[in-house]
Design a protein that fits this description.
With about 350 residues, this protein is α+β, with helices and mostly antiparallel strands. It is built from ten helices and 13 strands.
């Protein structure tokens, strides 16, 4: 039996409250289930030491606060984890990870921008690393580093909002602005969509609402009247006793609210416009956007021997402007003219910082 497999088995025994973990019981368990004979007490002590080190790596803050995360009870003659929710190894098996990955693959409609594929890749990377640790000695470092997206801002309100979306139930919530001086306001309406979004600074959850006036007895969903709110700016959500009759067209798709956006927020006054750009055939970005389009409306056509023309249909807002300024070295915008002028002005302001 490989030492790494033995560590996993002992870790599993520590997670079982009914199992009395000590040298005698573990030795008997390994002998019965894996034909391991002569499991010495010295080996058991070394395995416990390795498990403590793995726990320290996984839970450094908890280790700093509590000391060793595996302790011994003389009264019960057993070793135990100081908390029920910690483990030296991931608690999900490789089979379960594969099942989760397959489920996500079959439900990619719940994700946008390749997020579903990214999550599948992370799960499979975890399963792959787990398989390596069962057949090789443990490394003192992680052999892979996955992107750390951090917490999803506003995630604590997801369950209550999702429940009301499915129930088609109007709610009232208190919303506050971003600054400390912002006043709170009461919003009444029907939540229709939860959307995850990364704005470059953090990743958070947003909710799309159909607003309504107090006292209305009927609510008709109109995609052009929907409003977007960040969950982390919502202070309180309250149920509404008198529920209006909700009318939703069978072909209503709230995601269409974002169909002409490059980002998330919309100005109702903006109309989608055609954007024409040139990219050199030698540009690294051409290969990239062929695989990962800038937007669903993207069309690529041959312009001449050295470049291609990219056509997009977007509402030209701050997000679009910033995108083309950011990639001005690779993409040349041809039209509309007002966007060209905005990009020029933005580049001039940037150059002024270094003049």
């Amino acid at each position: 039996m490989h030492p790494s497999e033995r560590l996993r088995e002992i870790n599993g025994l520590l997670l079982q409250k009914s199992f009395q973990v000590n040298h005698i019981s573990v030795s008997a368990y390994l002998n019965e289930h894996f034909d391991v004979i002569n499991y010495a007490e010295r080996s058991f002590s070394r395995d416990l030491k390795d498990l403590k080190e793995l726990l320290q790596i996984r839970y450094p803050a908890l280790h700093d606060a509590s000391g060793e995360l595996i302790k011994f009870s003389r009264a019960q003659n057993r070793f135990y984890l100081i908390r029920d929710d910690i483990s030296a190894f991931p608690s999900i098996s490789d089979k379960e990870l594969s099942q989760i990955a397959s489920t996500i693959e079959q439900n990619k409609h719940l994700f946008s921008g390749g997020a579903g594929e990214g999550l599948v890749n992370k799960l499979r990377a975890i399963a792959l690393e787990n398989s390596m640790t069962r057949h090789h000695d443990m490394l003192a470092w992680s052999a892979m580093e996955l992107v750390n997206d951090g917490e999803r801002s506003g995630a604590d309100l997801m369950s209550i909002i999702l429940e009301n979306i499915y129930a088609k139930r109007v709610v009232s919530f208190t919303h506050r602005g971003l600054t400390a001086q912002s006043k709170q306001k009461q919003i009444l309406g029907l939540p229709v969509l939860l959307k995850e979004y990364n704005n470059g600074w953090y990743t958070g959850w947003y909710v799309l609402f159909q607003p309504m006036e107090p006292g209305e007895t009927q609510l008709k969903i109109d995609i052009d009247q929907l409003q977007l709110f960040a969950l982390d700016r919502i202070v309180e959500i309250k149920p509404v006793q008198q529920q209006p009759r909700v009318r939703i067209h069978p072909e209503f798709r709230p995601a269409d609210y974002f169909k002409n956006c490059l980002g998330l927020f919309r100005s109702k006054s903006l109309q989608a416009k055609g954007i024409h750009c040139l990219i050199s055939k030698d540009s690294w970005m051409l290969n990239y956007i062929e695989k990962y389009p800038i937007h669903a409306s993207q069309q690529i056509n041959l312009e001449n021997e050295s470049s291609v023309r990219i056509q997009l249909t977007l509402e030209i807002d701050q997000e679009v402007e910033n995108f083309f300024i950011r990639f001005a070295q690779e993409i040349r915008v041809l039209e509309p003219e007002n966007l060209v002028e905005i990009i020029k002005a933005g580049l001039k302001r940037g150059m002024a910082h270094y003049s």
